[in-house]
UniProtKB/TrEMBL annotation:
Domain DUF1508 per the UniProt entry, residue ranges: 16-61
Lineage of the species this protein comes from: Bacteria, Bacillati, Actinomycetota, Actinomycetes, Streptosporangiales
Organism domain of life: Bacteria
Source species of the chain: Nonomuraea solani
Protein name, UniProt field: DUF1508 domain-containing protein
SUPFAM superfamilies associated with the record: YegP-like
InterPro entries associated with the record: DUF1508, UPF0339_domain, YegP-like_sf
Any Pfam family matching the protein: DUF1508
Amino acid sequence: MTGGMAGRFVISEDGQGGYRFALVANNGQTLAVGEGFPSKVACVNGIETVRRNAPEAAIEDASGQEI
C-alpha cells in the first residue's frame, strides 16, 4: 500500500448490544475483524492492542499445510 497508511479501523454495533471492529484496507477490503466487545471503550482498547502488537507479530502456521 502506498501513502503510509495501512487502512482504517471501523467500529460498528454488532446487533447484540456490543461492538466489533474491522481493519479495512484503503481499497475497501476487510483485512481482519475483532471479537465482540461489551462496550465501545473495550472495542477501542482492542484496537489499541492490535496496533501495539501487530507490527512485530510473527506468523505461526498451525495448519499443517505447505504453502
